Amino acid sequence: MTIDARLKELGIELPTPVAPVANYVPFVVSGNLVSISGQIPVRDGKIAYTGKVGADVSFEDACAAARQCALNLIAQMKAATGGDLDRVVRVVKLGAFVNCIDGYGDQPKVVNAASDLMVDVFGDKGRHSRSAVGTNALPLNVPVEIDALIEIA
């Protein structure tokens, strides 16, 4: 089954890739690796979630924000592969940052929403290494930001 067919089966329509908000590019292709800049929870051109997890943002909304970041990562993957997600050989690594209160320890559980989506879409090729880090602030006051390293054919 193609990745596009898998997305359709899962009822997922990829968003338009988000344009950079500062002096960087959305992704860099170097050989067979693609480094994708941090994606934030933008949906339909607007930030879908803002605030600090554990204070303003519930666990459930933080997970939804992480999933939206993952959808935006897949949209960037599609752009980086010239529209052919079947060129993705492996999701190598996700680097995730969770804007949270001091003492919050569920960053890995929040980021599982993104990791689970990668496996749902790409199967074993979606299994990756990962960092899930808590931080005291993120750009535009978003609760989650995730970047990725992928291997392509």
Automatic annotation (TrEMBL):
Pfam families: YjgF_endoribonc (PF14588). CDD domains: YjgF_YER057c_UK114_like_1. Residues 5-142 form the Endoribonuclease L-PSP/chorismate mutase-like domain. InterPro entries: Endoribo_LPSP/chorism_mut-like, RutC-like_sf. This is RidA family protein. It comes from Gimibacter soli.
